[in-house]
Each structure stands twice: as structure tokens, then as C-alpha cells.
Write a structure and sequence with these properties.
This is Protein-(Glutamine-N5) methyltransferase, release factor-specific. This protein is of the alpha/beta class. The protein is 43% helix and 18% strand. It has a seven-stranded mixed β-sheet with strand order 5-4-3-6-7-9-8, with helices on both faces. Strand 1 (73-76) and strand 2 (79-82) form a beta hairpin. Helix 1 (3-13) crosses helix 2.
């Protein structure tokens, strides 16, 4: 069997408008070849082991396992990140959070709270010069984040922490004057989650998706309350669901009544990032 024959065979086993593209990615993965190499060498024979691996991956894909988990890779902000079932799959809309953080000039410190795969924190470390620290409550997610930082050459300090409770995180914050905090925390409710595709609800970690059964903002409430203890120049950026805009802005003003709060739209023109700029009161 050739690569082209395997590609077509796998494609017939998959469903949906992207079946052939998914099949192509599977063949490229098992044959360790690029898209260009696949097209240039379609008649190259594939081994029995490569056929077995491709068919096994196709069976999982047919059951709805996301391609990112099958390949253990996901592109984000021009780089490829390792992902697994312990990490949320980075979304294109989250790049809005990164872009807004990069637009803030010369902070002393950047903190990525709830780093997951490390996509946000690692990207920020590679795109600017301020030191970056990242936290997560999941040790499994932190292992993935550290792997990404090492592979991409990013200098990020990681801490196993419930939000910002780690003493070394607090100590580092006390030493900085201006701090950027980025957070893509779980913000869905069970009701919001029902609108998500099966790939998300059945395969991505609930710990990284669902916050509470009220408004989905319980973790952001805790985070903002923690941050009110620091008399620093703070820029806090939080990714939200567009349906949470009013509640999230109200929460921001409640915790930081004198701050400037504004909203950034994602590529779909949906409200995606709440930014709170709170100057030091010193």
C-alpha cells in the first residue's frame, strides 16, 4: 500500500467536511513526513506498522477524539505546542489575550495564571523581555507546560499553585512595581458547556473548562480578590465567554472601582478579553 492509497482509505473511514484533511494529517504523522513531502512522494510504500498506527488513529478520530490530542500538537501564535488530555487545546481566540498583553509596555513581571499547556506564558516569554512566571493547579498540565518551554527555549518559572497562592509567587509580586496578569481560567458553566461540540465535552478536561454552575466567574472572583492585596500597577487580562461580558465588567469594577476597564473583541468580533488597568495607589 502507498501513502496515497492509505490517505484515501483513511479518509473513507472518517466523517465530516474535514475527513480528507484529517486523514492527510494522520498519514503525515505516522510516516513522519511534511505535507510537501507527502504530495511529492504519494507512491512511497507504507509499512504494516504505519498502516496499523494510521488505522488506529483514524478509529479514535471517528469516535470524536480531537486531532490535536491524536497528534499531540497544536499551533498557537506561530509555534507548535505539545498538548495531551490533561491540557486544554489552545484556541485561536486566545491569541487575542496574548496580543493585548504584548501591547502593554515594559512590565516588571508577567504572570500566567492557569497556564495549562503553557501556550500563553511560553509565547509571552518568547515575544518580549519581561520575566514570566506561570501557575497551574494540575501537576499533569504543568509537566506539559514545562515540556513546551524547554522545547521552544522559553525562560518561564512554573509553580504548582491554586491561582496565586504559592509563597514564591507572592514574594516575586512584592518585588515588582508593574505587573501584567493574564488568565484563561475555566469560565464555563454546565449550561454554557452544552453549546460546545462533542469533541470538547467528551474529551477535553473538565477541570480546564467548567468553573461553577452559576455564572462561571468564581475563579476570576478569587483571582481578583487575591490581586487587591497588592498595591502595584496592575494590568489584568481575563479571557471570558461573550455571554459573560456584563457580569465580568461588573466584577472588575467591584474589585477595582478606580480602574480603567475595557473589552477586546476576538477575530469573530465577539467580546473575548476583559482588561483591568489598576494604577498603584502609592
Amino acid at each position: 500500500m502507498t501513502r496515497q492509497q492509505l490517505w484515501k482509505q483513511i479518509g473513507t473511514r472518517l466523517n465530516g467536511p474535514y475527513a480528507l484533511d484529517d486523514a492527510r494529517q494522520i498519514v503525515e504523522h505516522v510516516c513522519s513526513c511534511s505535507h510537501a513531502e507527502l504530495l511529492a512522494n504519494t507512491n512511497t510504500p507504507v509499512s504494516r506498522r504505519e498502516q496499523w498506527r494510521a488505522k488506529r488513529m483514524a478509529a479514535k478520530r471517528a469516535r470524536g477524539v480531537p486531532m490535536a490530542y491524536l497528534l499531540k500538537l497544536r499551533s498557537f501564535y506561530g509555534r507548535v505546542f505539545f498538548v495531551n488530555r490533561h491540557t486544554l487545546i489552545p484556541r485561536p481566540e486566545t491569541e487575542t489575550l496574548v496580543e493585548e498583553a504584548l501591547a502593554i509596555s515594559t512590565p516588571d513581571l508577567i504572570i500566567d495564571v492557569g497556564t495549562g499547556s503553557g501556550a500563553i506564558g511560553v509565547t509571552l516569554a518568547l515575544e518580549q523581555n519581561a520575566p514570566v512566571i506561570a501557575t497551574d493547579i494540575s501537576r499533569s498540565a504543568l509537566r506539559a507546560a514545562k515540556r513546551n518551554a524547554h522545547r521552544l527555549g522559553a525562560n518561564v518559572k512554573f509553580f504548582h499553585s491554586d491561582l496565586m497562592d504559592h509563597p514564591r509567587v507572592r514574594a516575586t509580586m512584592h518585588q515588582a512595581r508593574s505587573i501584567v496578569v493574564v488568565a484563561n481560567l475555566p469560565y464555563l458553566t454546565p449550561a454554557f458547556l452544552q453549546d460546545s461540540p462533542n469533541e470538547v465535552t467528551k474529551h477535553e478536561p473538565m477541570l480546564a473548562l467548567v468553573a461553577d454552575d452559576k455564572d462561571g466567574l468564581c475563579l476570576y472572583r478569587r483571582l481578583l480578590k487575591q490581586l487587591t492585596a497588592y498595591n502595584k500597577s496592575l494590568s489584568i487580562l481575563m479571557e471570558i465567554d461573550p455571554r459573560q461580558l456584563k457580569a465580568a465588567r461588573s466584577l472588575a469594577y467591584k474589585q477595582f472601582p478606580h480602574a480603567k476597564v475595557h473589552t477586546t473583541l476576538d477575530l469573530s468580533r465577539q467580546p473575548r478579553v476583559i482588561q483591568i488597568d489598576a494604577p498603584s495607589q502609592a
